[in-house]
Amino acid sequence: MNFAKGMSRRSVLTAGAVAGASVFVPTRFAIGNTAKVKVGFLLPYSGTYAALGEAITNGFKMALAEQGGKLGGREIQFIAVDDESNPAKGPENTNKLVTGENVDFVVGPVHSGVALGMVKVVRESGTITIIANAGAGAATGPLCAPNVFRTSFTNWQDAYPMGKVAVDRGLKNVVTMTWKYAAGEEAVGGFEANLIKSGGKVVKQILVPFPQEEFQAHLTEIASLKPDGVFVFFAGSGALKFVKDYAAAGLKSIPLMGSGFLTDGVLKDQGAAAEGVLTTLHYADALDTVENRSFRAAYKRAFAKEADVYAVQGYDSAQLLMDGMSAVKGDTGAKDALIAAMEKTVIKSPRGTFTLSKAHNPVQDIYLRQVKNGQEVVLGVAEKALADPATGCKL
Ligand code: BEZ
Fold first, then answer.
1. Are 9-153+288-363 and 156-281 equal in CATH topology?
2. CATH: 3.20.20.370, 3.40.50.2300, 3.30.300.30, 3.30.450.40. Which one for 9-153+288-363?
3. How far is the CA of 126 from the centre of ligand 1 (A)?
4. What pTM value is reported for the model?
5. Domain residue ranges of the chain, discontinuous segments joined by +
6. pLDDT in tens, 203-220
7. Ligand 1 mean position to 175 CA, how many Å?
8. Which of 48, 86, 110 to mutate to test the pocket of ligand 1 (most atoms within 8 A of CB)?
9. Using CA positions, which residue lies closest to atom 5 of ligand 1?
10. CB within 6 Å of ligand 1 — which residues?
11. What digits encode the pLDDT tens for the residues 221-237?
């Protein structure tokens, strides 16, 4: 099974053209009972975050396949747009799905900048949207909307707990480093706030343009600053490269911390360079629960690779949609009832059971993890049932 492959824009546009040529315009009743539900993926299938987009797509389709492959009893048509993790094209790419394809649901994106452009479009159109990764706080803060849900995390949520962990471990003087865009700045901001609150100090904050992966000059500077520890936000191929470069620069004696994206999905390829890296995240491969064990085994059977946090988020996005659509028996026209059902969902996730806050963010445990002998070991729960403050949301 290779769900993400073959979802080229060409096949998307072909499908749209055929649908548009139809002369039969079904009534709402007929749509609710016979037509396929259109699910649009707005995800990166190229570039730094390509593997993340593929994992989300795979997890989403696997959850549906496990439950008979339908939404509220209706067949599904998937339409995928490669968002290229390009914020400038966020509104245009969202419109390809919303206006061009008239999708019932949007799922995505990975990149926070793309999310902000996407949310502006779906707030207008009212399309029910599930943010399956991007952690941009504003999307469920000042820009929150009844039709926008998140099954992933906020950038703040996964980083804030590490600030106290650092000080508790005696790592008081810390250099922070990230890509200069919403995800990195919010993650580093959350970490720094809790570090300072707990008695620590930011020695220097280093920002590099996204998706630059030239870290050498900054690593030389970190060596000369001699901090107690370093906290970073990087993900995808940038995370893989940063951890390897950090070790190659001889910095392993300075503890490296991060949001868990630093090692998730790339740990195997990081090899010995990742040894000792300390992270906080809403998921860990090693969680010893029935849900996680069976999810991981099924994912490996289906895709011949290990699941990661992105696959979990895709899986849970489908769970949320299945819950909503079964409550309204597939009637996408019953939007208020559909939204109300989604708001009440309790998701039995591989990450642990979670609910949604008033702002439609997951309220979830954040785990403290450390790489030991090549494995991501769960040291404990850094924050139980942590909710993003969702400042500015008026839902
Ligand atoms: C973001 O842009 O929000 C993001 C990207 C990759 C991993 C985590 C967050």
1. yes
2. 3.40.50.2300
3. 24
4. 0.93
5. 9-153+288-363, 156-281
6. 999 999 999 999 999 999
7. 20
8. 110
9. 111
10. 49, 110-112, 133-136, 155, 183, 235, 261
11. 999 999 999 999 999 99
Task: Tell how far the Cα of 121 is from the centroid of ligand 1, in angstroms.
Answer: 20
Q: What is the pLDDT of residues 302-338, one digit of tens each?
A: 999 999 999 999 999 999 999 999 999 999 999 999 9
Cβ-based neighbours of 218, under 8 Å, separated by 6 or more = 177, 206, 208
Q: How many CA atoms lie within 13 A of 194 on its CB side?
A: 22
The Cα 111–Cα 179 span in angstroms is: 12
Arithmetic mean of pLDDT, 267-294? 98
The predicted-structure confidence for 48-77, as pLDDT tens digits, reads as follows 999 999 999 999 999 999 999 999 999 999
Q: Which residue of 43, 52, 84, 111 sits with most ligand 1 atoms within 8 Å of its CB, as the best mutation to test the pocket?
A: 111
Q: What is the mean pLDDT of the chain?
A: 93
The CB density around residue 68, as the number of other CB atoms within 10 Å, is: 9
User: Which sign, positive or negative, has the C-alpha torsion 272, 274, 278, 281?
Assistant: negative
- Among 180, 261, 263, 280, name the best residue to mutate to test ligand 1's pocket (greatest count of ligand atoms within 8 A of Cβ): 261
Phi, psi (degrees; rounded to nearest 5) at 316 = -75, -30
Give residue 27's pLDDT band: very low, low, confident or very high (50, 70, 90): very low
**For residue 392, how far is its CA from the centre of ligand 1 (angstroms)?**
21
- In angstroms, what is the span from residue 167 Cα to ligand 1's centroid? 25
156-281 CATH? 3.40.50.2300
Nearest CA to ligand 1 atom 3: 134
98-113 tens-digit pLDDT: 999 999 999 999 999 9
| Helix orientation angle between 50-66 and 290-303, rounded to the nearest 10 degrees | 110
C-alpha distance across the termini of the chain, in Å: 40
